[in-house]
Structures are given as C-alpha cells and as structure tokens.
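> @MW can you paste both from yesterday?
MW: sure, first one:
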Amino acid sequence: MSRLVLASASPRRRDLLADRLGLDIDVRPADVDEAPKHGEAPAAMVQRLARRKVSAVQAEMEDLVVAADTVVIVDGDVMGKPETPHEAERMLRALSGREHSVLTGVAVRLGPKGASGVDRTKVRFRRLGPGEIQWYVDTGEPLDKAGAYAIQGIGGIFVEHIEGSETGVIGLPLGRLAVLVASVGANLMDYRRSDLLP
C-alpha cells in the first residue's frame, strides 16, 4: 500500500497534512546540511533544500515523498530560525511595522518522478512595542520558527496584512503542494485517513 512520507520533523507541516487535510502520513525527517551556498538566491536555496530533503529519505517506489524548506526575507536578508531569545528579539524588531516575504520551497517524489516549486507570500507586521516583543519571546514560541514567529499561533496577532498563502507562511503551501503532487500523477486526497473516507 502506498504511503505519504513527510521528509520533515516540523510539527507545523505534520499538522497541516494530518490535522487540516486528514491525511495518513509517515513522518521521516531528512538529515541534510541546510547551510546556504555562497551567493545563492533565497528562492534557489529553499527549492534546493526541499529537493535534497525529498531525495534523502528512503521510501518505496509507490510512496509519495513530500519535503519543504521555509525562510523569511526582509531587506534582502534571510532569516532562518533564531537560536537564542536575543536573536528572536532582533528578528522581531526588524519585522516590526514592515512588510517581509516568506519563501517556501516544496518538493515531491513518486518513484522516478519528481517536481518542485517555490511559494512566495508577503506579510506585513503592525508596529510592535519593546514590551510586546519581550512578552512574545518569553512565551518560547519564536525559538523554532523561521523569522521568529508563528502566524498560526500567538504570533498571528502581529500580522496586519497577508498577500498569498497562509499555509506557505506556516511552512507548507497546500495549494502549491496539490499542484506538484498532481504533476507526478498522484492526488493528495488518495492519502486520506481511512476513518475519514465516505
């Protein structure tokens, strides 16, 4: 029986597939070096990393493998996940009152067929006060999120406007994913949990 394999340890991506879409997934995090290459454009980087992740996971020929990589871009600078509370504060100050882009590279593999793409969403933050930033950092939520915030969590209160895919900001643009899956001859709904089928 074919399976949908998620090549990611991200609980947000798992939740999007398992909880929002009701898919039966097998989580197998890919172990790849996520360091950017010198001079590499952010869109090229997230697409390359998504492809590497989808290739790094062992799966049967009939299994659909899905991977993604997300970064936040402001003033041309790439923001990954903050490693410390201080770094999270710095990122949130940079995003305050401004628009930024969220790029998510997505890759899929089904047997010998593969496809990939990049989703771009624009997000504008309202102006944040220093106390508000400190309060948010103290919640712990920013520490494992690209750009130091979770739009689907507490960080959603900072968002003034969004243009594009909200699920792309979370880490897996579902519309783009469905198109890529169709391009390799599959359908996401074929992986629905059996208890949700009619």
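MW: second:
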Amino acid sequence: MTDWVQALIAEGGYLGVFLLMFGETIFPPIPSEVIMSMAGLQAAKGTMSLTGAILVGSAGAMLGNIAWYLAARGLGMERLRPLIERHGRWLTMDWAEVDRGERWFMRHGYLFVCIGRMLPTLRSLISIPAGLMRMRFLPFCLWSSIGTVGWSAMLGTGGWVLGTRFAEMEAWLGLASTLLLIALGAWYLWRVLTWRPRT
C-alpha cells in the first residue's frame, strides 16, 4: 500500500494528498498515517510545501467528515429507533442508552468531536453520532477542522522531520491503530455476550 500512496502523492501533488485523505475518511482502512507522513516526506524533498500539504490533506478529510455527518443526519434518530429495537443485541444498545448518550453528547459533543479527530481509526466515525444527534453544522465543521488539522499537522510534520525514517513512524502508528482495533473488537464481543435489554 505504501508504494502506490507514495506514487500518487509524487505524481498528483496536492490533488493526490486531497483525494487520498478524502478516501481515507470515507473508507478508514486507507491509513492517514501513511498518507500524511508521505506528504511530509515530499515536503522535505521540496516538491510541495508542508503547510500546503497539511491544509489540502485536512480539506480532503473534512469533505469526507461532512459526507458522513450528512448521511447520519439524513438517517436521523427517528429512523434509528426501529433498528435499535430490532437489532439491539448486535448493536449492543437499547433506546435508554441512546437517550443517555444523547444527553451526554449535548453537553460534551464539541470536545468529543475535536479530540476524536485525533484518534486513529475512531476519527472517521465521529461524524456519525454528530449527525444523528443533529449537532449544529457550523460548530461541527469548526471543531472537526481543529482536530483534523491537528492530526494532519502532527503526521505531516513527523514525516517532514524524519525524512527517510518515515517508515519508523508508520510502524509505530500502525501498531497503535492495530491495538486500538483489537481493543474495540474485544469490547464489542464483551458487549454482545453480556448485553441485556432494560425493562
């Protein structure tokens, strides 16, 4: 995967970074850790500016974030309820938990969105609860942008600083993403096995 990402960034420049980060947000298995590290490496070689790479990468990711937000908002809580009631065990929640989550999100949602954008794997999924809970669009974009730019800047700057050692950073971040996925899978399995609907 690294080779074709590197080739697309080298040949496509800013547009390549934009498209890759948009695709990474829509389809999370494409790793932003590789994309922005490669963009930082290209900036170190002088083929693009680091600031430009960070901005276009963030713009591509934000376009994907908005797409997920609008899709979830279009689904809405009203359409979600029959799914929860019919498939509660596999979704590991009942409507009482959704109500509680909605109240929590109303109080802490903006911070949740901002910090969530800087967490591997989860960063692409944060738009879904924001859309379902109908978070206001402009604050969603503002707080998402802050977190997204922070994540892109960290990875891009890391690739720029490390130069040809970007593979080391990719390995560490890839390990973190893998461990997080394993933890999430174990947590989900535990939720399924222990889930009981509230009466």
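> thanks! The chain has seven helices and no strands.
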